[in-house]
Amino acid sequence: FVINDLDLQYFIQDRREVYQILKAEGIQLPRFAVLNRDPARPEECNLVEGEDHVEVNGEIFQKPFVEKPVSAEDHNVYIYYPTSAGGGSQRLFRKVRFFFGFCRGTAGYTSNMPVDTVYTVGPDYAHAEARKSPALDGKVERDSEGKEVRYPVILNAREKLIAWKVCSAFKQTVCGFDLLRASGQSYVCDVNGFSFVKNSMKYYDDCAKILGNIIMRELAPQFQIPWSIPLEAEDIPIVPTTSGTMMELRCVIAVIRHGDRTPKQKMKMEVRHQRFFYLFEKCGGYKSGKLKLKKPKQLQEVLDIARQLLLELGQNNDSEIEESKAKLEQLKTVLEMYGHFSGINRKVQLIYLPHGCPKTSSEEEDVRRDDPSLLLVLKWGGELTPAGRVQAEELGRAFRCMYPGGQGDYAGFPGCGLLRLHSTYRHDLKIYASDEGRVQMTAAAFAKGLLALEGELTPILVQMVKSANMNGLLDSDSDSLSSCQQKVKARLHEILQKDRDFTPEDYEKLAPTSSTSLVKSMQMIKIPVKTCDKVYSLIQNLTLQIRQRMEDPKSADIQLYHSETLELMLRRWSKLEKDFKMKNGRYNISKIPDIYDCIKYDVQHNSLLKLDNTMEIYRLSKALADIVIPQEYGISQAEKLDIAKGYCTPLIRKIRSDLQRTQDDDTVNKLHPVYSRGVMSPERHVRTRLYFTSESHVHSLLSVLRYGALCDEAKDEQWKRAMDYLKIVSELNYMTQIVIMLYEDPNKDPSSEDRFHVELHFSPGAKGCEEDKNLPSGFGYRPASRENEGSKKKPHNDNDEEAGGAKRDEPDRAHMMFRPMVSDPIYIHRKSPLPRSKKIGSVEVLSENNSHSRPNSDILVYFIEGFELYSMVPSICPLETLHNSMSLKQVDDFLASIAISHDPVLEISASSPGTVKTSSVPTKKAPLNTYTPAKVLPCPFTQSLGKKMCSSEKSASGMLH
């Protein structure tokens, strides 16, 4: 008698055989193909490698895909990434070479996909453990004894059936296999055979009992020993709350602007050479008349053309090449920057002009011709800087502390509650980003800090970050401005072209919302044209200083921030100098944000040059930008709301659905009860949705919240204070955050408005170059706590909570745990002090009207202090509470009204009950209780096991398959 069948163990050594057996048993597998490099079977060795895909025996696998050797004993596992995410590959383990390939498609590689290991002892007993997926960063997380850190999880009924099938099919009583979860389904991706759990006394006791029972039944059948297995502890231990007043965090939604970036730059040139037309035709440009080139191979072709034309120009002065030599050199210089193409920080656009350029640009005066030409637009810059990466990573690390939990065996540092939630599937996390490289890299860096990952950002970007541009969620579909925006821009330009002091009428025209920061900027500028004159003369002086530095031999080896040269810096400023003042003597107001962008970058990152008058340019351009940037999104309240709806209505709808939905408990992969101490409801998810986007969406969402009538300032004192605070915020800087948190009081009646509680928080992002005393200051994080400080009572905590809870009188712990970490390449390693915020008060009491306290609310102190980083990495303003006592019904009704008011179809269907409603438009049904989250995922046992479950987010997940 053998416990595990020996013959089948030979099959387990070959991944091809494993997959054939699993397939025959009807167990779901990830999509795969086998590349057999056997000379005797050439038909099984067809491999075609493309830039972003491979074709294996006729089956195409888009990157990212995984390659494994056929031998299960060979752990040379690689994952390959698309060029859009930076390209390259990641070795998941420590070996070096691989030979035979096993390619798995991306079906199992959507975001948040760690692989679990399931251990069976007989067909009716399975123990499952979760771990951090090494595919994210190539690292295996280990404990103090060098063993991989794992957390037990509970399998659902369907997965227990899979364990029974695997155990029976391979005739392995003691067997381990890897389970991968994606889109509500479970897939077996590896069978390991004979293996035991590494660190679980309960498993050892159960295993000994079951194996003893199996052996005795086999060796002594005459005794008819009954079959017995230990039952899994399904009872959830009751965790006492503070007199029933604790509320459970159910959902966190954050909309975040990208981190610090290089100045965005653009160069236009008209090209007529045949090589450019050939490239345009080759890439299919004639179909739409325009072409966008971002892939490394395409950019390399443009670079080759530029090099060839420059070579011909150098060899022959009488050459017929019409392209500007200076512009070809700039094209070559920009494309050669950094020595490689990452695919996310440079792009070339080619636009077909059937009759040539309609007018000359501000940079050149060519005689107009009627024959066809191409307008080449080179865009570069605007990429996330090393400082921006550190900003995002540190904010992600601090963001963890908004989550409760972290007691018992897995406690030890602030924020560990979130890491445990995530590893054990109680954390339903999705990260969305627009298609801009800087936004995607910010999202990846944030995820790296949030989930304590290591290594490069590319693997994290591919696995964790979803592209949200398929439905305009975070991207603006059209390059053109709306009619309302065009009118607003024209009025703005007209007001700022006046060569006289601002009059009371001008204040009324430009600042009808009475924004404190706007009025302050207008008072500082006084005469707009005179201020523009001064800025222009200062820019002229700045370009002169840079030229002098270039001629100085001592400055020959000066290395500017992020590999920029003095020559590139001069071109950046010279172009602004030319474009700011037009030929008619008037100023191009649309260039003010670019000037502010550039000077902010140089003051922050290139201060070692010690150029004169940079702070004066910064001061004046910031005052102008503080008028132009926010007012481009509307001058009056009605305009701001109209433009904002145009940008962020899809996002508003998505936020509304995020607040409404919660997964059915039957479909949740739960944390094992033994490890659930300190978690209020172990069977429930915490839903986190992070949306990373650009300035336009952040401005728009804030406008909707401010001017969309969410609360009544006249009746709500807290909202009035919040609006007064927002009036003094002059800039929504990098890493601006708008955070919505949903809490549930399980002791309240499900139909009561008091059951769900919404909080709204805001941070204006990174601090600028001005002194801290000039920064806007609000009432802190959850200000109601400070107001009620005198009358508050300390809540009672049970022993588990006291053991893991942080003490409020230990300020040094925050400094110790959130000491900033360096990310390469940061060149200045001087640490700034970590002053304790004076705004931080007790955070036990929620609001004037509610006395609910949070589990482990004291640990939130670490998050709200903000953090000081290195001298080139500005610290981030702490979160300020805008409101902390809204009901979910109030917020849901508000979001619904915004979405409906922007959609005429919705408006008609909502107002006319008798009309036919189109299925493509979501509508509110009257009988539904809108402030109770709807359970949208059906129970899997109400359908056949083979039928795919549908969810409203599945289409978004499918974008990564």
Automatic annotation (TrEMBL):
It catalyses: 1D-myo-inositol hexakisphosphate + ATP = 1-diphospho-1D-myo-inositol 2,3,4,5,6-pentakisphosphate + ADP; 5-diphospho-1D-myo-inositol 1,2,3,4,6-pentakisphosphate + ATP + H(+) = 1,5-bis(diphospho)-1D-myo-inositol 2,3,4,6-tetrakisphosphate + ADP. InterPro entries: Acid_Pase_AS, His_Pase_clade-2, His_Pase_VIP1, His_PPase_superfam. Keywords: ATP-binding, Cytoplasm, Kinase, Nucleotide-binding, Transferase. Residues 767-814 are annotated as: Disordered. GO terms for molecular function: 5-diphosphoinositol pentakisphosphate 1-kinase activity; ATP binding; inositol hexakisphosphate kinase activity. It comes from the Eukaryota. Its EC number is 2.7.4.24. Residues 784-814 have a biased composition (Basic and acidic residues). It is found in: Cytoplasm, Cytosol. The keyword Nucleotide-binding applies. One of its GO terms (biological process) is inositol phosphate biosynthetic process. The keyword Transport does not apply. GO terms for cellular component: cytosol. Pfam families: His_Phos_2. PANTHER family: DIPHOSPHOINOSITOL PENTAKISPHOSPHATE KINASE, INOSITOL HEXAKISPHOSPHATE AND DIPHOSPHOINOSITOL-PENTAKISPHOSPHATE KINASE 2. Belongs to the histidine acid phosphatase family. VIP1 subfamily. Bifunctional inositol kinase that acts in concert with the IP6K kinases to synthesize the diphosphate group-containing inositol pyrophosphates diphosphoinositol pentakisphosphate, PP-InsP5, and bis-diphosphoinositol tetrakisphosphate, (PP)2-InsP4. PP-InsP5 and (PP)2-InsP4, also respectively called InsP7 and InsP8, may regulate a variety of cellular processes, including apoptosis, vesicle trafficking, cytoskeletal dynamics, and exocytosis. Phosphorylates inositol hexakisphosphate (InsP6). This is Inositol hexakisphosphate and diphosphoinositol-pentakisphosphate kinase. It comes from Sinocyclocheilus anshuiensis. The gene is LOC107670030.
